[in-house]
Specification:
Largest sheet: 4 strands, antiparallel
Structural class: alpha+beta
Radius of gyration: 18 Å
Shape: globular
Distance between the termini: 38 Å
Number of strands: 7
Order of helices and strands: HHHHHHEEEHHHEEHHEEH
Strand content: 5-15%
């Protein structure tokens, strides 16, 4: 399947990608155990299977990702890429990118989250991402789903790992734990699930020399300070020249080095992290 992005896959390719993702879960978790042990820590203690173990584990992974930084080579010249987890090869990884060691940490953490969440919510299933809304940002991704919610488990850890690698504000262990608790609640159908079943948080359309970004209508009305915060952080990203807000729910983003998928995922993940729940 090469380097085909999830968004460009046909149904058969997406089904194969899901099978590949699932086959990697056990080995990824074992690699995480070895990495923890290699740092002189007890994997049985750190990976005890409890929800609360997420916090210290993620704090440790965040520290490792910060120390590892970014790989100095561009994606096309990184010889480790063929050995990356499938979700990284078929997802939106951009330069300057985290090194293979960081991606392996995120991969192992993904497997550990899957173990915890499926124990907490036994009815969950792995599915290929699909949605009635054509702009759904997780189309064809391998998702963990219930009747109430669905998510790509690697997305938020990868987002935070990028923050660490670039010396920016990553998710703390406490923040990751809160995110996992919200995820479990949503999968049980007991909390907000707007990111899964309602209108997407963000839509992105490529125009001539810019991107037209639409925000879900309730965001500016209910969370005006959060929207302003997102705009300020977006303006500070590598490769973003300017962000102009021309309407309550509309932005024009000048980012010549970005594409629609990267911009949509960045905005979606940022909002999922920062919107109050």
């Amino acid at each position: 399947m090469g380097e085909l992005l999830y968004e460009d896959m046909n149904p058969a390719q997406a089904a194969d990608a899901l099978d590949a993702f699932l086959a990697e879960r056990g080995p990824a978790l074992e690699r995480l155990r070895l990495m923890i042990s290699g740092h002189g820590l007890d994997p049985e203690e750190m990976l005890d299977g409890s929800v609360y173990s997420v916090s210290p584990l993620w704090a440790w992974i965040t520290a490792q990702a910060g120390q590892l930084g970014t790989d100095p080579r561009p994606l096309a010249e990184d010889p480790t890429r063929p050995a990356w987890p499938s979700w990284a090869r078929h997802g939106m990884i951009v330069d300057p990118h985290p090194p293979a060691e960081t991606l392996a940490l995120v991969d192992g953490f993904t497997s550990y989250l899957a173990q915890i969440i499926t124990t907490e919510v036994p009815g969950t299933q792995w599915v290929v991402g699909e949605h009635v809304i054509g702009d759904y940002p997780m189309i064809n991704y391998p998702l963990l789903a219930s009747d109430h919610h669905q998510l790509f488990l690697s997305s938020m850890p990868l987002y935070s790992a990028y923050q660490s690698a670039h010396g920016r504000d990553p998710m703390s262990g406490t923040e990751m734990l809160a995110y996992v608790k919200r995820t479990i609640t949503s999968l049980r159908g007991e909390g907000p699930v707007a990111e899964a079943i309602e209108e997407p948080l963000v839509t992105v359309v490529a125009e001539v020399d810019c991107f037209d970004v639409g925000l879900r209508p309730d965001l500016a009305e209910n969370h005006p300070e959060t929207v302003e915060w997102m705009i300020a952080e977006l303006e500070d990203r590598d490769g973003v020249v300017s962000v102009h807000r021309y309407g309550t729910d509309a932005l024009v983003v000048d980012a010549p080095q970005w594409d629609e998928i990267r911009l949509k995922l960045w905005c979606t993940l940022w909002l999922q992290r920062h919107l109050p729940r």
